Amino acid sequence: MKIPVSPKPFSYDDIDFAEILSSPFSFPPTDERGRYLHWDKVRHLDIDDPWLHWRTMRTARKIKSRLLPLKTSEGGVFSFSAIEELDKFQHWIDKNAAGSIGASYADIFSGGESYLFNSLIEEAIHSSQLEGAATTLLQAKKMLREKRRPHSHDERMIVNNYRAMQFIREIKKKN
Question: Is the pLDDT of residue 132 over 50?
Fold first, then answer.
């Protein structure tokens, strides 16, 4: 795996906001296609001044950032930039990566256990894939249904995710 090139450090205190605001860019936190680019990608864009473009994007992200109530081990704060494109992507994930949510009420309760089993399987697989597991949905479902031992790190992620969800379900039943 290639490690991306980091940009040279700059301080927001040193930014000439007049220069950035008068730049030919529209001061977006993303590129024109809505992508949240890293410096390693921006530096290869076919534009006049990639460094100015990067500082412009970073400044826009900083302006839109929200602080989290978390601290680093050195006492620093965590923040994130809530941009529209990421909100849309998160909404898409919420809608499309969650089992058979569209099943009818009658279907769920007539075959409740199989519905729950399928939902747990799909949730475990999709969660693992979002974390980087590389396998197909069909292969992963087959492995879990047949209770086959995982043969790779990716399959192990899926099995562990599925077992964790079963464990939580059992604890919930006890309480």
Answer: yes
Q: How many CB atoms sit inside 10 A of residue 53's CB? A: 21
CB crowding 17-31: b at 16 or more within 10 Å, else e? eeebeeeebeeebbb
Question: Is the pTM above the cut of 0.90?
Answer: no
Residues 6+ away with beta carbon under 8 Å from 21? 27
DSSP calls for 146-162: TTPPP-SHHHHHHHHHH
What 164-171 contacts at long range (C-beta under 8 Å, 24+ apart), as own/partner pairs, is 164/124, 165/120, 165/123, 165/124, 166/120, 169/116, 169/120
pLDDT band at residue 103 using 50, 70 and 90 as cut-offs? very low
| 2 backbone φψ class: left, alpha, beta (φ>0; ψ -120 to 50) | beta
Number of other residues whose CB lies within 10 A of the CB of residue 81? 17
Closest CA to 166 of 117, 94, 110: 117
Is 100's pLDDT higher than 80?
A: no
Distance CA 88, CA 92 (A): 6
